[in-house]
Each structure stands twice: as structure tokens, then as C-alpha cells.
Amino acid sequence: MKKLTLSYGWTIALLVAIAFPFVSSNEYYLSVVTLAIIYAIAALGLNLLTGYTGQFNLAHGGFMAIGAYAVGILTVDYEWSFWSAFVVAVLITMLIGLLVGLVSLRLKGHFFSIFTLCVGYIIFLLIEKWESLTHGVIGIMNVPTPELGGVVDFYDGKAQYFLALICLVVGIWLMNRLVRSIVGRSFIAIKNGDSLAEALGINLMRTKILSFVISVAYAAVAGALYAGYVRFLGPDMAYVSTTFNIVMFVLVGGLGTIAGPVIGALLLSSLTQSLQFLADYRMLVFGPLLIIVLIFIPSGIVGLWRRFLTKKTMA
């Protein structure tokens, strides 16, 4: 019965997502939701590492920026096609993630988080200062949109929306398969305790690195899509605020759930945009709202919904 309810829920959500561009006559709303979907992909990756494996990576936004800049540099400076650059960007980000993971994952708890925070800041500084490669503070402009043999015009907002949606749906499906597999259960065992995982015969380092690399791969996909959609890249993309936003998406939506990061990204992105009229003062509203949610709903929106369903079933 529970699986059937979840299946209906995902089906309804997908149908609403497909219908949205056709019922929304405002291009601005379409743009907001498209960006929210892109960030939801990145949030899914962070949720795998933090929500399922228990490792809090504070460089996630930096890895998203690596994916975006790889696409920007290869397409603008070297005139690669978008999709070739897309694949290479993901592979480069995974390789860098592997190298970072080999060092950082030897640390535990807060030490790991602090180390990755430093890594994220180093990524930001490299993007800002390495002008010969990244164009520095000027940024990379006119990143080409994806192409599909002239069949689909990706200059159109709806086409970009559906491209992001397809990537999100595939990402959710793959993530669901992963966390329900034996490998996924190994991730959860590590989250519950290294000693328990070792007692079960799990190779801690290898499993943590696998989770880290898959996590940054999701960030790279999001970054590549962002580059093709926004078409301008600046160093601020790698700043800690990007990681902070993604962390909030995961926490508010529901840590350790598949739907949580998606719900959090869509809800908070919409809320942020609705408060734009407050300019720099919008955080005076947004910040306390987040604090209230985290205090009274620590398990996130999905956790709250699950408790409601449990009480309803018991009643």
C-alpha cells in the first residue's frame, strides 16, 4: 500500500511538472522553476553523501561550479560541442572529487566538513584568480546552449525546462535504484557508525569515496545544465553561499529522502524569488523562516508528512 501511494505521488508530480510550462504564461516563473530543477539535481547528490552516508560536504557548490566552468571553457574557448563538453565536465569533476575524497575522507565528523569548506574556498579562489583559464572576475559569457541536430531549439525556455526535467527524472530514478541496492545499504550502514559498518565487512574508505564521487557527479550535471541555461558564469557561483543554498534545500525538504531535496529546491527557490522585492532585506524574512522550520520540523517536510501518515494509519 505504501509503495502504491509513493508511485501515485511520483506520477502526479511528473504530470504536474509536464503540464506546468503549458499552463504558465509567465516566462519568469518558467525560468525560476527551471533553475530550481537544476539545483534539485545538485541537492540529490549532496543528499546521497550527507543524508545516506553521513558525510557533510561543504564544497558541493564548488564542484557544481567545476562542472559549469568545464562546459564554459571547452565550448567558448575551445569550441567544443555542448554535449561533448558535458560528458568531459562530469568526468573531470568526478576525477577531482576522487582526488579530494582520497584525502578528505580520512578525516571524520567536523574535521571532514572543515576540510571540504577549505576546498570549496580554494575552488572559488582558483576560479576568481586563474584569469588565463577561467577569465577571472569577468566570467565566461555566451556559453552555447545544448544542441540536438537542429531537431530541438534549446534557445526556447520550454525546451531547456524539459531538458532539465528529464535529467532530474533520470537522476531520481538512478538515485532510488542506488539507495535501495546493496551499495546503498552500505552507505546507510556507514552513516549509522563506522564500527557497525566494519563489523558488517564493509570497506569504509572505498565505500565513502564511491558515495563522494557519485555525489559530485550529480553536482557536475547540475553545473553543466546551469552553464547551458544561464549562459554566463562568474566566480560567485563557487562561493560558499551556493553550497549553503543546496544544504538548505536538503534540510528543509528532508535529509535522507529522495523527494526531500526536490521539494526543498522547488519550495525555497520559489520563496526566495517571491521575496525579491525586499532586495537585500529578504534574508530578514527568509532566515527566521528557515530557523523555525529546522527547529520545529528537524526531519524536513517529507519527515513531517511521513509522521502524519503514520499517525493517520495508527488512528
Automatic annotation (TrEMBL):
Compartment annotation: Cell membrane
GO MF terms held by the record: branched-chain amino acid transmembrane transporter activity
Keyword Membrane among UniProt keywords: yes
Entry-linked CDD domains: TM_PBP1_LivM_like
Tree of life domain: Bacteria
Membrane topology: Multi-pass membrane protein
Pfam family, one: BPD_transp_2
Keyword match rRNA processing: no
Membrane-traversing stretches: 29-49, 56-76, 82-103, 110-127, 161-179, 209-232, 244-271, 283-305
Keywords carried by this UniProt record: Cell membrane, Membrane, Transmembrane, Transmembrane helix
Xref: InterPro entries: ABC_transp_permease (IPR001851), LivM-like (IPR043428)
Example of a GO cellular component annotation carried by this entry: plasma membrane
UniProt name for this protein: Branched-chain amino acid ABC transporter permease
